[in-house]
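PROTEIN DESIGN WORKSHEET
SECTION A - STRUCTURE
LENGTH: 239
TOKENS:
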């Protein structure tokens, strides 16, 4: 059955009671339900801690298990491990997660400002980047900053919807990434909609509206090959 993904229904939920279903051979902790996002789509896995009446285990990150159904909570080295069947409280490092959410939604806006195929991306708590397949020059930073922050300030709602696999196959233009296809095979695919300006498949966590992102700044713009341009964004108020 796998781990119940509570972050999917409510990315603002910060903790949950859960039961330990397994400790894997590498010391990873598997729960029946979790608020921890697992590494994927360029977004890092969440950190935080698990508490029991006997103590606390700090979690460095979360990843998908080998079967892709379970989420494995990876403890810091030397942390005490709960026992299978034990009840725990899973608590996020919320500030870090929320910054990931803001950056991730900001990158979706960047893909609106620069409407070119995406060849890669990465999300961090203080910045993010997208790599674009484009030939030639891109607009200057001040122009990109202005366009990006206009979209932020417009406070577009950010919502999710689902389509079946066949609908995505029939609408390939929804997919902006060239090298990574959204996960298919489960029968349906999750889409993130930003107002009436963007709609694309995405499994990550996002803020409720673009105004929550805060003012962004275009960072370094690099050439990564003949037709690959790497564009970074960061929070304008610093880390």
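SECTION B - SEQUENCE
RESIDUE ASSIGNMENT:
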């Amino acid at each position: 059955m796998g781990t119940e993904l509570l972050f999917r229904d409510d990315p603002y939920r910060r903790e949950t009671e859960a039961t330990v279903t397994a400790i894997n051979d590498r010391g990873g902790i598997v729960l029946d339900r979790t608020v921890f996002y697992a590494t994927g789509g360029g977004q890092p896995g969440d950190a935080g801690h698990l508490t029991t009446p006997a103590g606390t285990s700090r979690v460095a990150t979360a990843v998908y298990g080998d079967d892709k159904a379970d989420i494995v909570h990876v403890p810091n080295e030397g942390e005490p491990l709960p026992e299978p069947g034990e009840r725990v409280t899973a608590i996020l490092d919320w500030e870090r997660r929320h910054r990931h959410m803001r950056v991730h939604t900001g990158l979706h806006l960047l893909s609106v400002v620069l409407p070119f195929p995406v060849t890669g991306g990465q999300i961090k708590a203080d910045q993010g980047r997208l790599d674009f397949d484009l030939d030639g020059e891109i607009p200057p930073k001040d122009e990109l900053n202005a366009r990006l922050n206009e979209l932020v300030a417009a406070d577009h709602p950010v919502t999710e919807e689902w389509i079946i696999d066949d609908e995505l196959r029939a609408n390939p233009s929804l997919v902006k990434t060239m090298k990574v296809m959204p996960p298919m095979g489960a029968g349906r695919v999750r889409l993130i909609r930003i107002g009436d300006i963007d709609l694309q498949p995405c499994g990550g966590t996002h803020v409720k509206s673009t105004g929550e992102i805060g003012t962004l700044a275009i960072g370094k713009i690099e050439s990564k090959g003949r037709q690959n341009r790497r564009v970074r964004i960061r929070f304008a108020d610093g880390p």
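SECTION C - NOTES
The mean pLDDT is 92.
Helices lie at 6-9, 94-113, 141-153, 165-170.
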